[in-house]
C-alpha cells in the first residue's frame, strides 16, 4: 500500500514539475465563441485555423467557453499526438448532441475511449478486413462500371456529377454492409441520404435533430431485420460477420459487452464515414482536372501504355505512378475531413514540450498540415508532379486519414475506391468544360464536417478506347 501511495506522490510531483516547467501555449487572447466557430464552418474554418497557425505556430490554444482547444497544424505534431502518444489522446469530447446522434456514445466515430468502444472497433475492423479480402475489389469494380454507365447515358450533356458520385460511394457501403445496392432514383436511398445530411449539419435545431435520428434509426433497423430474415443471406456482408462476432462473444468472458445496438451504430458509422467523403473527393478530382487538362492526358496515356486494353486492378497501382500522384495531390490539397474529428486528452500529457491537461480538446488540422510551407513547396498549388519528381513534398507527410487508435476505419476501403473509381473514369472519359464560355470550378470549397467543392457542371466525353 505504501509503495502505491509513494508512487502516487511521485506522479503528482512529476505532473507539477512538468506543468511548472512547461512553457504556456501561444494563442489568440480572449474567448473564441463556439457559436462563432460553428458559423465559421461556412466561412472555411480550416483556412481560418491554418492562418492562425502562421501567426501562432503549429500548436496553439483557443479558448472556447469553458473548453480549451489545442489546434495542431503540422504532420509532426499531429503524429506526435495521434500516433506516438495515441493512448493519451484517443478520447472524444462528450457533447449532448453527439450523445443523441451516436445512440448514447455507442458508435465508433463519436464514442469515447472505453473497453466497450475498443471491443466495438475491433469487431468492426475485423469484419471489414474479412470483407475487404473476400469481396471489396469486385464490389467497387461493379460500382465503377455503373458509374461509367451513368456518365455514358448523359451523352455528353453538361451535368453536375455530385449525386452520381454519392450514389456510387453509398452503394459500395450498402453492398458491403447488407448486400444491397440502390438506384439513383430510389426513394429509400434519397430518404437515407437526406436524414444523414441533416444530422451532420453544425448547429442543428434540437427537435429536428431528434426527428432525423429517429428516421435514420428506423431505416437502418428495417435493413438489419430484412437481412436477418433472409433465407439465403449474402455471406460476404459485414452485417453477417458482425452478428457472428457478437454470437462468439457470448462464449467468452466479455458476455453482453456488445449487442445488436452496436451493429446498428456500426452501420451508421460506415454509411456516414464512407459516403460523403469518397464522393466529395471524386468531385474535387474532376474539378482540379478541369483546371489542369494536361494531367488528365498524362493519367490516360499512362494507363493505356501500361495496361493496353485492360482495365486496372488495385494491384496495378505500383505501375501507375502518375495516377497515384493525382490521388495523393487531391488528398493533400483537399483532405475531405479537414479537421478530422476532435480528440480529447484522456490524461495529462504533452505535445511538442507543452503541457496538455486531461480533457483538453485536440483539433488535428489536417488541412493545415497539408499546406505547411516547411514541408510543401508552393503549398496552395495543384501539382501532382511533386510526388513524382521527389521534390516539394512527400507522401510520408500526408495525414488525410488521421492516425493511431482513431485512424479512419475505412482507410483501406477508401484507398481502393479512390484508385478504381478514378482509373475507370479517366480510362473511358475525357472531362471537359461544357463550353468555351463556362467558368472553371471554384476551388475554394465549402467546409462543413466534409470539405466539398461548390457545385459545377462538366461534360464527360467518351474516349475512342472506351467500352461503355
Ligand atoms: C474517421 C478521413 C473514408 C469510416 C476518419 C477520420 C478522418 C477520415 C480524417 C478521423 C480520424 C481521427 O479522428 O483522427 C477519411 C477520408 C476518406 C474516408 C479522407 C475518403 C477519402 C471512409 C470510408 C469509411 C470511413 C470509406 C467506411 C468504410 C470512418 C470511421 C471513422 C472515420 C468509422 C471513425 C474512426 C474512429 O473514431 O475510431 N476518416 N475517411 N471513412 N472514418 Fe474515414
From TrEMBL:
It is an enzyme of class 1 (oxidoreductase). Heme binds at residue 408. GO terms for biological process: hormone biosynthetic process; progesterone metabolic process; steroid biosynthetic process. GO terms for cellular component: endoplasmic reticulum membrane. Its EC number is 1.14.14.16. It is found in: Endoplasmic reticulum membrane; Microsome membrane. Its cofactor is heme b; heme. Keywords: Endoplasmic reticulum, Heme, Iron, Lipid-binding, Membrane, Metal-binding, Microsome, Monooxygenase, Oxidoreductase, Steroid-binding, Steroidogenesis. The keyword Oxidoreductase applies. It comes from the Eukaryota. It is a peripheral membrane protein. InterPro entries: Cyt_P450 (IPR001128), Cyt_P450_CS (IPR017972), Cyt_P450_E_grp-I (IPR002401), Cyt_P450_sf (IPR036396). Its main location: endoplasmic reticulum. Pfam families: p450. The keyword Nucleotidyltransferase does not apply. GO terms for molecular function: heme binding; iron ion binding; steroid 17-alpha-monooxygenase activity; steroid 21-monooxygenase activity; steroid binding. Belongs to the cytochrome P450 family. This is Steroid 21-hydroxylase. The lineage of its organism: Eukaryota, Metazoa, Chordata, Craniata, Vertebrata.
Amino acid at each position: 500500500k505504501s509503495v502505491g501511495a509513494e508512487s502516487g506522490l511521485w506522479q503528482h510531483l512529476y505532473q507539477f514539475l512538468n506543468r511548472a516547467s512547461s512553457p504556456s501555449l501561444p494563442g489568440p487572447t480572449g474567448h473564441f465563441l463556439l457559436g462563432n466557430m460553428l458559423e465559421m464552418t461556412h466561412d472555411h474554418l480550416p483556412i481560418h485555423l491554418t492562418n492562425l497557425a502562421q501567426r501562432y505556430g503549429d500548436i496553439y490554444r483557443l479558448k472556447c467557453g469553458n473548453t480549451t482547444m489545442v489546434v495542431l497544424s503540422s504532420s509532426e505534431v499531429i503524429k506526435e499526438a495521434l500516433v506516438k502518444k495515441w493512448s493519451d489522446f484517443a478520447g472524444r469530447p462528450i457533447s449532448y448532441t453527439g450523445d443523441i446522434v451516436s445512440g448514447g456514445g455507442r458508435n465508433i466515430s463519436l464514442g469515447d475511449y472505453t473497453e466497450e468502444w475498443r471491443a466495438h472497433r475491433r469487431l468492426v475492423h475485423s469484419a471489414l478486413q474479412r470483407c475487404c479480402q473476400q469481396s471489396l475489389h469486385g464490389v467497387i469494380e461493379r460500382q465503377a462500371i455503373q458509374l461509367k454507365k451513368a456518365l455514358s447515358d448523359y451523352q455528353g450533356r453538361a451535368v453536375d456529377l455530385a449525386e452520381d458520385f454519392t450514389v456510387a460511394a453509398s452503394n459500395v457501403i450498402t453492398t458491403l454492409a447488407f448486400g444491397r445496392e440502390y438506384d439513383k432514383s430510389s426513394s429509400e436511398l434519397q430518404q437515407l441520404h437526406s436524414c444523414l445530411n441533416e444530422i451532420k449539419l453544425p448547429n442543428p435545431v434540437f427537435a429536428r435533430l431528434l426527428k432525423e435520428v429517429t428516421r435514420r434509426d428506423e431505416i437502418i433497423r428495417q435493413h438489419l431485420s430484412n437481412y436477418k430474415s433472409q433465407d439465403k443471406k449474402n455471406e460476404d456482408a459485414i452485417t453477417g460477420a458482425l452478428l457472428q462476432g457478437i454470437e462468439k462473444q457470448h462464449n467468452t468472458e466479455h458476455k453482453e459487452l456488445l449487442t445488436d445496438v452496436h451493429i446498428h451504430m456500426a452501420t451508421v458509422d460506415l454509411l456516414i464515414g464512407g459516403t460523403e467523403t469518397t464522393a466529395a473527393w471524386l468531385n474535387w478530382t474532376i474539378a482540379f482536372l478541369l483546371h489542369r487538362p494536361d494531367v488528365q492526358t498524362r493519367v490516360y496515356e499512362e494507363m493505356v501504355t501500361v495496361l493496353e486494353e485492360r482495365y486496372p486492378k488495385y494491384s496495378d497501382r505500383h505501375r501507375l505512378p502518375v495516377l497515384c500522384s493525382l490521388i495523393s495531390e487531391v488528398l493533400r490539397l483537399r483532405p475531405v475531413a479537414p479537421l478530422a474529428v476532435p480528440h480529447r486528452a484522456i490524461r495529462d500529457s504533452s505535445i511538442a514540450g507543452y503541457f496538455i491537461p486531461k480533457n483538453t480538446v485536440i483539433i488535428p488540422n489536417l488541412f493545415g498540415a497539408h499546406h505547411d510551407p516547411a514541408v510543401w513547396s508552393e503549398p496552395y498549388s495543384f501539382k501532382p508532379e511533386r510526388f513524382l519528381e521527389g521534390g516539394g513534398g512527400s507522401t510520408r507527410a500526408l495525414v488525410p486519414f488521421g492516425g493511431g487508435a482513431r485512424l479512419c476505419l475505412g482507410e483501406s476501403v477508401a484507398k481502393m475506391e479512390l484508385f478504381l473509381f478514378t482509373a475507370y473514369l479517366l480510362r473511358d472519359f475525357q472531362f471537359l468544360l461544357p463550353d468555351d464560355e463556362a467558368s472553371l470550378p471554384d476551388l475554394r470549397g465549402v467546409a462543413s464536417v466534409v470539405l466539398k467543392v461548390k457545385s459545377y457542371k462538366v461534360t464527360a466525353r467518351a474516349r475512342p478506347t472506351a467500352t461503355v
